[in-house]
Every structure is written in structure tokens, then in C-alpha cells.
């Protein structure tokens, strides 16, 4: 059932055992799992069925540190959440992404990749994906990887009819929790705001926060402040270890034959490092996106090489090459406690909730990962006699990051990370908030590390796992 207002929902006398906050990929997935298990669940969606400027205004905030997107642009606040601007790129975090890295503090998950693999067939069905293919070694250092571009499923569109027909799931639009109340052991209720006004309180047996990789921290920080620690009693890490995928054009390549590389339907190929290479160089994971350059651009690259790297230009001309590619790199950001979400002390939204102040900076490890990753890829091309890489001037010379490129992936991870150490994590291996009996968190905010790939596939897999766990735990 889908209700356009909280008043309509109340009139229906729907008795929910579980309250999910947010209807994005995580919230919708968990709701479908619980509904299928016969558990009555209500999903509170802050937005309506469509985009609106008024709704987006609640997402305004500021970023302190490196240049970043406006916070009301980098996510969406209506049914289906940020799946509404998802590009559809799919890959699951690598097995090595779940393991600790000795050279990068605070890495490692309390679960392994194997624990989400049973849910991948379900994820593939939801995201309309073919089977994932194994990675292909190109050298001891570099592997070809598959990044599938799905039809970019909009969760609010794809599952609307199913949810509307459901007897066990109620979706309430234009309604959200401004804060949760708690006694240090349980969430005792949620204070609601619906269609522009205070809507009172709501009580359920279980609460699952799925409001996104920024809002999850905001809601819990505010709730904890208001309840004097009654919602997240072990809050040292709350809002901290926030991560993105920095994304820049790192250079270009002259190739012997573009057909040597397996490309996808849009003529692009993707490469990542082996674990051995990461360990040797002490860098994070990264993904190189190879995009063929049109012929006029090839001549420009060769001319530039003749001036700056004569020996490389000689090789190029001796091969009579006619193929070049741009090298876009997105890479893993190491988890740092200093990268964090804070509550503004001066600015609040229409409901009186403090807006977000995002503190975010890239570290030297990220810079080294980008530079050494491109060098690694270049050495592989040389050893295989497949081509030559030219690293961008700003990167090779130690210059500033460009401000006129992608900047990052719109991937919001961390803030309520999963772990066993309560001083460095917010939820346990089952996504339950430490010290709380009935509060869970879904979405990429529970990520301990970011890997190099787009997060949606892993988000949905973790949501399937959480939904399955709760379905077995909760008695109807």
C-alpha cells in the first residue's frame, strides 16, 4: 500500500512491527524481504513520488575541505531515493576489499565477501543484471575487471506497483522522522514531520535507518544529541570515517591495438590492481576506465609526446599507431576518522533539524594510489608491448587536483560503519547499532572500506542479507 500522507496511513489502521526510514535501494529491498516473510512493515519516505525543489532544500549543507558537490545536488529526496539518478554501474566489492590492509589503518570488515555472495542472484534479478564474470589477469599487477552497466533501475518506479499491492508493506510519502527517541537500549519512538508540519510520534518494535550515506549520520547525530546518548550509546565513531571515490582523468594512452582489450557495449574497458601489487606498493584499490579517443585526438597526443617525452613518441611513430585512449581513474579512499559528518551550529532546515557540515579531504595515500596506479598500468602495457601511458601534467608534477572534472562518484560511504570495535564502528556485523536492541542501519553508511567500484550492488546485497536476518529474528 502506498499512502500520500501520514493522515491517510493512520486512517488505514495498519499495524507495523518494523519502521524503515527511506525508500531508496536499501530501504525498499529490506521492506520487500520483510513483506515476503509476512512481517508488517511501514516505509517512511521523506519525499513524494516526484522530484521537488522544496523537498531537495532539506538536503542543503556545506562542505569543509576539498571541493565537492553541493549536498542538495549529490542525492535525491523522493520515492526511490538516489536510485533516481543512478547511472546503473554495477560491480560487487572485491573479496580483498573486506580484508584489513596492514598499511592502511582501520581497514577490514567484520564480515567477508562470502557472506553476501548467496544473495547475488537475488541482487542480479532486482538490478536486471547478467551473471558477473571472473576477473582476467593481464599481468601479475593488473587485472581486467567487469563493470556492468545495468538499465539503471529506479526503485521507486520498478517496485511501486508491487508495494502498492502488498498487504504487508505500507509506504508513506512526504513523511519522515526528524529524530528518534531512545533510552540507551531501545528506540522508543520517532518524531515525524509530514507534508510540511509536525505529525506527532510513531512507535514500532524495530527501526531501520535507510536515509542515505549522509542522512543516516545526520539523523542519528541529532537524535543522539536530543536524547543525551539514548539512541547511539556508543557514539565515538558516529559520523566518522566518511568516504567517497575520488574520480579524475589521470592521463592517456597510445595503444598498439584497441581490440586487444575486451570492451563493453559502450566500447570501454576497466582494469584494477591485483592484491599483490597493492601490498607491494602499499596503495588502495583503484579502477582505470579506458575510453577510446577519436582519431583527431590521437594526433594531438602524439604531438604532445614528441615535445615532452621524445623516447615514447619514437615508439609510437615506429608502431604507426592510430589508437589512443583517455584514462579515467576512480579509487578507494582510506577510512579516516577526520573525514566526518557534523551538525551545523548555525543552520537548520524547515523542521528545525541542523543541516550537515561535511568535513572531507583526500589524503596523501589517495594521491599515491592514483599516481602509482597509473604507473603500474603503464608498466604493464610496456611489458606486454600493448602501448604507452602518459600521466597528466598536474599529477606528474605534484600539482593540485583539477576543479573542472568529475571530482568524485556521488558515492556516500561510511559514517555508521560496521565493526566489532565500538570506538571505531557504529553497527555490528548484522547492522545493529551497538548497545541497542531494535535499531538497525541499512545502506552504504555501514561500509567499512569503499573499494574501487560503485556501491549500489553491494548496498542491495547487504540489504538482502539484513532483510533475511530480520525476517528470521522477528516473530509475526
Explain what this protein looks like in three dimensions.
By secondary structure, the chain is of the alpha/beta class. Helices cover 26% and strands 24% of the residues. It contains 13 helices and 22 strands. The chain has helices spanning 6-11, 25-36, 53-56, 120-127, 155-158, 160-165, 215-226, 275-281, 295-308, 310-319, 364-383, 393-396, 456-473, and strands at residues 2-3, 18-21, 41-44, 61-65, 89-90, 136-137, 142-144, 148-149, 169-172, 175-182, 187-194, 197-202, 206-209, 246-255, 268-273, 286-293, 323-331, 340-348, 354-360, 387-391, 407-408, 439-441. Strands 6, 7, 14, 15, 16, 17, 20 and 21 form an 8-stranded antiparallel sheet that branches. It has a 6-stranded parallel sheet with strand order 1-9-3-2-13-22. α4 crosses α13 (456-473). The longest helix is centred in the last third of the chain and has 20 residues, at 364-383. It is globular and about 70 Å long. The mean pLDDT is 92.
* Number of DSSP strand runs: 22
Strand content: 15-25%
Structural class: alpha/beta
Main sheet attributes: strand count, strand direction, barrel closure: 8 strands, antiparallel
